[in-house]
Amino acid sequence: MLFQIYGDTALWQLLGWALVFTGLVLANEIARRSKAGGIFFFLVLPAALSVYFIVINVAAAKGVDWAVNNDTVVHMNSWFHYAKLYAATAGCIGFMMLKYKWSIGKTQWFKVFPFVIVAINILIAVASDFESAIKGISAGGAAGGWWLSSENVWLFGGWWNILNGLAEGEIHHVEDYKTELQERVQRRAGQTLSYTVCAESGPDHNKTFTMAVLLNGSEIGRGTGRTKKEAEQSAARCALEQMTQ
């Protein structure tokens, strides 16, 4: 939308964009830094919006004029928007449960939640890619083609969307060693995993990290990477390989 700013009101459009952006940043900080803010933005507000979404869509399905022409119905009627919206909301609520130790947020097994919500978001992206591929190929054959979305936006889809979707799934598989290790460990009660930095080397712009994964305080795997997260994944992979030997 930033590139569609034009005309005599361009300055006002830019100002509006800046105000909305600033408001979102402030709202994020309030929700992140205070329990009351998090409850309002991630529980109360989504609940109110859910009621609104249901009412507006039911009314539109019945052909009520004010609902049929409502901007929400016209510009936000695809499954993708709602899937991303509620996946993000579920992610925020889950992280609040972990942060404030609410209910199952206190349990050991719920610590895999961050990886689960990432997997769900990747699944949504993969499904969207496959949808674009199917509709693009249906419109233009093997070479792909343009198709009109339910929100009146033209999209160009084809076989490359299938490759992109498969690549996203493969990336998730490769990066999911920590989750797999966590799930294996949690099959037995009283097991605790932790990661620790063993070494750092190289200049600030090109560091290499060595991480160890510990089970109940004892090292079970070690790995290296250009970031701590990469090194943790490598360590988890090493631990899994040791377990299967």
Verbal overview:
A 3-stranded antiparallel sheet has the order 3-4-5, covered by helices on one side. Strands 1-2 form a two-stranded antiparallel sheet. It is 62% helix and 13% strand. The chain is globular and about 65 Å long. The longest helix has 28 residues, at 113-140. The chain has helices spanning 10-33, 35-61, 65-68, 71-75, 79-100, 113-140, 159-174, 177-185, 228-244; strands at 145-148, 154-157, 193-201, 208-215, 218-225. It has 9 helices and 5 strands; from the N terminus they run ααααααββααβββα. The N and C termini lie far apart (54 Å). It is of the alpha+beta class.
Strand content: 5-15%
Outline the low-pLDDT stretches: none
Total strands: the figure is 5
- Termini separation comes to 54 Å
The overall pLDDT average reads: 87
Oligomer: single chain
Radius of gyration, rounded?
Answer: 23 Å
Physical arrangement of strands within the biggest beta sheet: 3-4-5
Q: Which secondary-structure class do the elements indicate?
A: alpha+beta
Number of helices: 9
Q: What is the N-to-C succession of helices and strands?
A: HHHHHHEEHHEEEH
How many strands, which pairing sense, and closed or not: the largest β-sheet? Answer: 3 strands, antiparallel
Give the proportion of residues in helices: 55-70%
Based on Cα principal axes, name the global outline.
globular
